Amino acid sequence: MTNRPLVAGNWKMNGTSASAAELEAMGTGYDSALADNVELLICPPALLIAQLGSQDKIAIGAQNCHAKESGAHTGDISAEMIRDAGGKYVIVGHSERREDHGETDADVCEKAEAAYRAGLIAIVCVGEVESERRAGTTLEVVTKQVSASVPAGATAENTVIAYEPVWAIGTGLTPTPADVAEVHASIRATLIKRFGGDVGSKMRILYGGSVKPANAKELLAVKNVNGALVGGASLKAADFLGIAEAYRG
Ligand code: PEP
pLDDT per residue over 8-59, tens digit each? Predict the structure, then answer.
């Protein structure tokens, strides 16, 4: 048995204090029958974590953290600060962080370790770029990222993997369900080999990249897909709930 599926929203650099109304609308549509089947998480800009964390229906997380607990790191926030503000999760190694800030697998691994240190759950992102998909090296690339970005101390409770093909993020393009199944099966095998069947078979593996209400049911039904990481469609309650509805029994 894996953990309860997770549908996570990444608001990126979008949202202000007025976004509390959107979160409230999400909470209203997230009834107890849906909550039995799926956990919902929103990762807003860090400035909103404390404010949005004041409700308890939808978990709140961060989009990034520094590896250290405190110190001279202007503009950064630590995992401990996220926890103190009421965050439960932190996304690490999103492709936009890897690309815009040059984050390596080793950096991502340190950030995930920081998450464990602070008692947060790390969502470790991996995924190939378009040229790697075209070259047929997707499985190789993703296996290497999972091996190098996920710390030795990972468990099914403190870690979630998010497979996000970079070419599918924000583009409206998605891999076929068969392609998603192939990559998720490969990630599952990598996790089981490294952490054993008990941990590796239970760790949640999310799919991310242009998930919307219209394609959620098909993508979330794929074997070894234990939820979604959603960008654009997590900004509006109707879209985000429309994706979560794929889990209504
Ligand atoms: C993302 O950035 O993690 C993402 C999946 O974005 P989108 O859903 O907009 O493709």
Answer: 999 999 999 999 999 999 999 999 999 999 999 999 999 999 999 999 999 9
- Please give the average per-residue pLDDT across 169-193, as a whole number: 97
Catalytic residue (one of 80, 94, 132, 184) = 94
Is the distance from the beta carbon of residue 164 to the nearest atom of ligand 1 less than 6 Å? yes
Residue 69 appears among annotated catalytic residues: no
The contacts found for 130-137 with CB under 8 angstroms, 24 or more apart, are 130/166, 130/167, 133/165, 133/167
Of 10, 21, 18, the C-alpha closest to 43 is: 10
Q: What pTM was estimated for this model as a whole?
A: 0.98
Identify whether 66 is a catalytic site residue. no
72 Cα–ligand 1 center, Å:
31
Cβ–ligand 1 contact at 165 (below 6 Å): no
Give me the torsion for CA of 207, 208, 214, 215, rounded to 10°. -40
